[in-house]
Amino acid sequence: MCGIVGFTGKRAALPLLLSGLSALEYRGYDSAGVALAAERLVTVKSAGRLSCLQQKLKGGVWGQTCGIGHTRWATHGAPVDHNAHPHATPRLAMVHNGIIENYAELTAALCEQGCVFRSETDTESAAWLLDGIYGENHDPVQAIFKTIKQLRGSFAFGVIFADRPGEIYAVRRDSPLIVAQAEEGSFLASDVPALLAHTKAYYRPDEGVVCRLSAQGVCFFDDEGKEVAQRLETVDWSVEQARKDGFEHFMIKEIYEEPQALQRTVQHYLKKGLPRFQNPMLDGDALASFKRVILVACGTAMHAGLVGAYRIEKMARVPARVEIASEFRYADPVLGTGDLMILLSQSGETADTLAALRHAKAQGVPTLAIVNVVGSSVAREADHVLYTPAGPEIAVASTKAYSVQCAVLELIAIRMAMAKGRMDAHRARGLCVQLADHVPAEVLATLELSDRIRTLAVALTDAQHLFYIGRDLDCALCTEGSLKLKEISYIHSEAYAAGELKHGAISLIERDTPVVALMTVPHVAEKMISAIREVRSRGARVILFITRDLAERYEIPFDDCVQLPVSSTGQTVFGAATALQLLAYHVAAARGLDVDKPRNLAKSVTVE
Ligand code: F6R
Prior knowledge:
Elements: E1 3-9, H1 13-24, E2 31-37, E3 41-47, H2 50-57, E4 66-72, E5 87-88, E6 92-100, H3 103-112, H4 123-137, H5 140-149, E7 153-161, E8 168-173, E9 178-181, E10 185-189, E11 201-203, E12 210-214, E13 217-221, E14 232-234, H6 250-256, H7 258-268, E15 270-271, E16 274-275, H8 280-283, E17 292-297, H9 299-316, E18 320-324, H10 325-328, E19 339-345, H11 351-362, E20 367-371, H12 377-381, E21 384-387, H13 400-419, H14 425-447, H15 450-458, E22 465-470, H16 473-489, E23 492-497, E24 514-519, H17 525-536, E25 541-547, H18 548-553, E26 560-564, H19 573-590
Parallel strand pairs: 17-18, 17-19, 19-20, 20-21, 22-23, 22-24, 24-25, 25-26
Antiparallel strand pairs: 1-4, 1-10, 2-3, 2-4, 5-6, 6-7, 7-8, 8-12, 9-10, 11-14, 12-13, 15-16
The chain binds fructose -6-phosphate (F6R).
């Protein structure tokens, strides 16, 4: 949600800023801008994708060696040139990721003092506030601290001052920010992909620490102006992992990475064939003491939670419920002894998930985060963290992160079942072998169906709306299949528990309404067949996704069918998820859409 970059060093800054912004465009892409510092500050910005900004910069001579840049996901003010960042005042230029909640009162007060606002953004109030405070004594670190004390909300700021060419200042609260020192100079960014071409070592400054970047390096200051040390972290992603590698889109590349990501994740958490998390709470007896599991997340991660809740209840017989993070803390949930809260997040920066985590911690509930981005806010603040080594996920639509989240939850469910005395080691080992070996192979085999699924997808490109139906675990999967389709193809779709359809929504079924029916769960197979008959007899066109064994066992009516090369077990979810992701991808690609950057969305939602 908005990408910010900065560079100061021995080379021209502009190309580095633009390549950094290009690597961060997944965070927001409705407008972009840069500010460059030499004798004076120059700001260039443009509505539209980064390419529009590049076009505007063409032909200029841009030798400045210090600058900041931004790619925006609009919150306050339409995506037009004047709302794009950086926001410049006489003394500075600022880029911002986050939301200043008290911007209206600040703006009113600043306008009264004579500041002339040029945008409708919340950010400009922070820029003018800092401008005025900086004007008092020209001490950037002190001025930033004084400014942020007056701000409510979340922010990661990058600032350059007109009278300090060669220096960039940055600070964050509840928004991601990293800084790094490389051969060429010092870098500032919202996320690792912007830095990968230059360095793999970076600092993720603590909240409220002011960073100063110069050609010589990076320093950090606390609110008394004292220099403080920050921990250097390294990332094990390669530049290649953050490139498309010959695939047309990141999304399809990331779907194809699922077999490996699953294998890597499961192997990482297995020892002698059983789940082992190198964590005293999860490996010891403490796991047996939990009476309830609450899984909290947003969007796709929340859908992984639905799968996890099924599996925890099924195997460990521990009540498990899923909460939408944005609702959780406002619902004043009843929490207590015996609760374990699991937070799921690819980015580890989702504002609602972070807020839910803080709420649970304040109530004394133990928290466990399952996160893909090492060192991210959710990972740092949770009591316990399990990383999903899926590698960078760049496409806005989450795919491989979902699969590995489900895999880690499966391992937790097995471990909990053992701790509760519900599963012996022999059975647990069998499930783990299946997860480690068979599941990645099944997902690989599912990928071979890509062409077949593409053919089905082409027939759906003109659909106005469609349904996903399933029962039991398939019901959880349908929610994700449906979300994937609507977010990237812009076709309205609904996920329904197959048995619930007849209680209302079946009135929407008419001749040729496409219905994706998912059938992988044996004990509800006959019920699913009834639901399929019900919609077909009302004219629906049923596209059946079914496991091999169920297809062999039952006579099922359908219009199109994809036989999943997997057998029905609780772990069928992985192959089936891949198939539904492929369907969504091919529909969006066949509609000629920008699959990796769907409209109105951004990868990491760092505002509430
Ligand atoms: C959809 C998607 C989103 C995210 C959600 C949570 O494809 O990616 O629904 O799953 O915004 O993001 P994280 O997992 O980063 O907390």
